[in-house]
Design a protein that fits this description.
Elements: E1 8-12, H1 17-28, E2 32-37, H2 44-52, E3 57-61, H3 67-80, E4 86-89, H4 104-132, E5 135-140, H5 152-172, E6 177-184, H6 190-199, H7 203-211, H8 222-233, E7 244-247
Parallel strand pairs: 1-2, 1-4, 2-3, 4-5, 5-6, 6-7
The structure holds nicotinamide-adenine-dinucleotide.
Length: 253
């Protein structure tokens, strides 16, 4: 099988935000897309967007931090669309608190959804990529991997993703599979809007604060991240693996 004969992608956390933009971009680039998220109904807009581009779409409900749910979810994709050769591990959550106030539950949820999920999903899908002799894994890290006050759990998970990505690149390269990470800076999505709500400040105040660290004069949009993901997925990017691309509107990450 070749890259062009089996164009089936999975995007986790694709119901909204960056994941929805990635799913739509992959459809534009000729992929059928399975969207895995907690609630299949919440994926309906993404499914519509993929189908409007003439590609097949499938919404699968699964908690990507749960081993059995991942097994069943990937099996549903294989049944519904065929064997996936592209996996974008995008699902993520935040539970911000300073270290002193962080509960074990805050720690576990963020590590499990952001990091364990990447291990579980990649382990489950890589067999299909090996069978195809071709595959692309792209993981969503973050500039938070470099450290952020109040995000010990999230920073650890996103830094962990970078090590996991590099290791997968080493182990899977000889099967025609690349593994790379995109590390976004501040992107306008529900996740960042919810930060403002939790802080009890207007969203614009958060944007203004973040703009002090962004040098291209605007905050990030989901399509900015989808574009970087599309570069790694491109069959012509087969010599690029184990890399972390910071997409943050600034060289200072
Ligand atoms: P978002 O909160 O808008 O969307 C995340 C999606 O993941 C949601 O649809 C949610 O339902 C899904 N999800 C959460 N837990 C899940 C689980 N256990 N199983 C399956 N799906 C689950 O977030 P976003 O801003 O679009 O972020 C997407 C990714 O990009 C995340 O990994 C995030 O950490 C990363 N990121 C975002 C930013 C930013 O500024 N928005 C910056 C850096 C990195």
């Amino acid at each position: 099988m070749t890259a062009s004969s089996n164009r089936i992608a999975i995007v986790t956390g694709g119901a909204r935000g960056i994941g929805a933009a990635i799913a739509t971009r992959l459809a534009t680039d000729g992929y059928d897309v399975a969207v895995i998220d907690l609630d299949a109904d919440a994926c309906s807009e993404t499914v519509k967007s993929v189908e409007s581009l003439g590609r097949r779409a499938l919404a699968v409900a699964a908690d990507v931090a749960d081993e059995q749910a991942v097994r069943d979810g990937v099996a549903a994709v294989v049944d519904g669309l065929g064997a996936p050769t592209v996996l974008v591990n995008n699902a993520g959550v935040i539970r911000d608190r300073t270290l002193a106030k962080m509960s074990l539950d805050d720690w576990n949820v963020v590590i499990d959804v952001n990091l364990r999920s990447v291990f579980l999903m990649s382990r489950e899908v890589q067999g299909h990529m090996r069978a195809a002799g071709w595959g692309r894994i792209v993981n969503l890290s973050s500039i938070a991997a470099l450290g952020v006050v109040g995000e010990a759990n999230y920073a650890a998970a996103k830094a962990g993703i970078q090590g996991l990505t590099k290791t997968m690149a080493l182990e899977l390269g000889r099967f025609g599979i690349t593994a790379n990470a995109v590390a976004p800076g501040f992107v306008v999505t529900d996740m960042t809007r919810e930060v403002a709500i939790r802080m009890g400040v207007p969203f614009q105040q958060v944007v203004d604060e973040m703009m002090k660290t962004i040098h291209v004069g605007r905050p990030g949009e989901p399509d900015d991240i989808a574009n970087a993901v599309a570069f790694f997925v491109d069959p012509r990017s087969s010599f690029v693996t184990g890399q972390v691309l910071y997409v943050a509107g600034s060289p200072r990450c």
